[in-house]
Amino acid sequence: MGLKKMNDGGTLKKVIFTCDQLINDMEASLREIEKNGNILQCFEEMMGRYEQLEILAVTIGGHKQKGNIKARLTRVKRELQDAKTAVELEKYGNAEEMLEHHLIPALQRFREGLLST
């Protein structure tokens, strides 16, 4: 049974919407890095959005799917925390690289995986 059939109550749509919001937050953070804006606040907001995504995402799918979702999101969380630490240490280039080359693509793949089930 696919994720869509198991979640016709809209949970899957909420997960995808929250994932989209997190991707948008990350893209906004890249712009803030470029213009030396309030980057740390962006990362704090992203951590909050990530928590929303994690809470919602682990409610979809079967047992095996939940394990896969949890594992993928745990990697995203770890990299997001590393990027936040880089910002705190004022290593903006490192944070930018992590967002651009790791976090945003990982979330896009996660989102596409949800859509294809």
TrEMBL record:
One of the Pfam families matching this protein, by short name: DUF8042
Domain DUF8042 residue range list: 14-114
InterPro entries per UniProt: DUF8042
Top-level division of the source organism's lineage: Bacteria
Identification of the protein by name: DUF8042 domain-containing protein
Species, as recorded: Salicibibacter kimchii
